[in-house]
Design a protein that fits this description.
mainly alpha, single chain, binds nitromethyldethia coenzyme A, binds D-malate, 3-stranded antiparallel sheet
């Protein structure tokens, strides 16, 4: 019998890796996407710029089944999603009892937890697909109840497709529905997944490793996404752009330097993995150049894109001074009528339920020959503690 070959060494772990948020430490494998420092995210091998214009439904299919659907698969997947898109009425009842001053991400977490409390099955994939199918109505409910427009909300029409059904139920007064749909479709595809180790995805998978359930795991993931260093950077970035209020390069540079001096992050720049400009930022800039080149916020982010990398490059500790996905998304959402920046992270969350859901399904049902990844339990080393005893 030939002995098993020694496992390949990946990295040498040293004390320098401690308390770095696991930066660069390999912890598992991912079947849905990978991120390279120079090329950004690839879904199942496809660079994101080749997928940006696809239907979100086809990209959800890709993340789950690891190939792009042929026309028959695409059509039956849409029918399958439409058949799953029934949100139980108790979700709206619970949301109606929520305090309006809470952040919309609180509402998304509560909405998902409530959906799961009655809807969950014993099957990880069923729950992931049911959740994807229900997201448009949950999102529309969050907007309409908070805005006191629940009465008169149009009935869900899942056959329209995920984004068009949301736009139909939201029925945003005065909005150009074509532009809103276009921006949201691209937004969803760009934000669905970003490798295995981003904080929200990692959190969701960690929770699922206790054999909790898809909904509880996703709620944890959404709460991780809520922080301004992660998903809420899109809200913070537009708030920042509104505070700048000018596209004059010198004024923008002065503003950025003052933020740095006040020890505040420059939102929409930097990344834990990327080392060039995020291709998702470039895709949204190209879309903005088409739909809103003269929008005042768009002109400001155009200037930020030029000025900030130079300024951040002066700070040696910053690994990547370039724009990330959050530089441009808020500006586009605002332009198409979604003017309240507090909602932007819920769109990020909506998109990511697809990738996180697919990754949880893989970890629970495919990895380790179907046994699933065991309970997450990394090691922590004691600091400033000697063994001691009560006298
Ligand atoms: N503005 C100010 N300081 C920064 C920035 C930035 N944009 N980027 C990095 N730094 C600091 C960082 O805080 C850290 O400081 P310290 O050592 O004192 O803790 C130092 O530079 C080294 O950080 P990096 O190794 O370059 O990046 P890290 O992997 O730690 O953090 C981010 C990545 C994304 C958290 C960081 O770049 C950041 O805070 N960016 C602004 C917030 C943002 O746009 N987040 C969205 C990220 C994408 N997403 O959607 O999740
Ligand atoms: C992103 O989309 O950029 C992330 O989720 C952040 C990351 O990959 O760490």
């Amino acid at each position: 019998m030939t002995p098993n070959p020694a496992p390949k060494s990946l990295i040498e772990i040293t004390e320098a890796h401690l308390n770095t948020g696991l930066r660069g430490v390999p912890v598992g494998t991912c079947r849905t996407s990978f991120v390279t420092p120079e090329g950004g995210v690839h879904y199942v091998g496809y660079p994101i710029d080749e997928l940006a214009e696809l239907d979100p439904e086809d990209v959800v299919f890709l993340l789950h089944y690891k190939h792009l659907p042929n026309p028959d698969e695409a059509s039956s997947f849409r029918k399958d999603l439409a058949a799953r898109a029934t949100l139980p009425p108790h979700v709206a009842n619970v949301l109606q009892a929520m305090p309006k001053e809470g952040h919309p991400m609180d509402w998304l977490a509560v909405g998902l937890q409530t959906l799961g409390s009655a809807n969950k099955t014993e099957d990880w994939r069923e729950d992931a697909l049911n959740m994807t199918a229900c997201m448009p109505e949950l999102m529309a409910l969050i907007f309409r109840i908070r805005e006191e427009r629940f009465e008169g909300m149009p009935e869900s029409r899942p056959k329209l497709g995920l984004v068009a059904n949301f736009v139909h139920m939201l029925d945003l007064p005065g909005a150009d529905k074509w532009a809103l749909t276009k921006v949201l479709r691209v937004f969803l595809v760009l934000h669905m997944d970003h490798g295995g180790g981003n904080l929200s995805t990692f959190t969701g998978k960690a929770i699922a490793s206790s054999h909790s359930d898809m909904y509880a795991s996703m709620v944890g993931a959404m709460n991780a996404l809520f922080g301004p260093l992660h998903g809420r950077a899109n809200q913070s970035c537009l708030d920042f752009v509104r505070r700048i209020g000018t596209d004059d390069s010198d004024a923008v540079e002065k503003f950025v330097r003052a933020e740095l001096a006040a020890k505040r992050p420059i939102f929409g720049f930097g990344h834990a993995v990327l080392r060039t400009e995020d291709p998702r930022a470039a895709i949204q800039f190209a879309l903005g150049e088409k739909i809103c080149p003269n929008d005042s916020n768009f002109k400001i982010i155009r200037t930020l894109r030029e000025v900030v990398p130079r300024v951040l490059s002066e700070i040696p500790k910053i690994s990547n001074p370039n724009a990330n996905v959050d530089i441009s998304s808020g500006t586009l959402l605002n332009y198409v009528g979604l003017v309240d920046s507090e909602y932007y992270t819920t769109f990020f969350g909506w998109a990511r339920t697809a990738g996180i859901g697919a990754q949880i399904v893989d970890e629970r049902t495919i990895m380790r020959a179907g046994r699933g990844v065991p309970l997450y339990r990394p090691k922590y080393i004691a600091e400033e503690q000697q063994e001691q005893h009560i006298e």
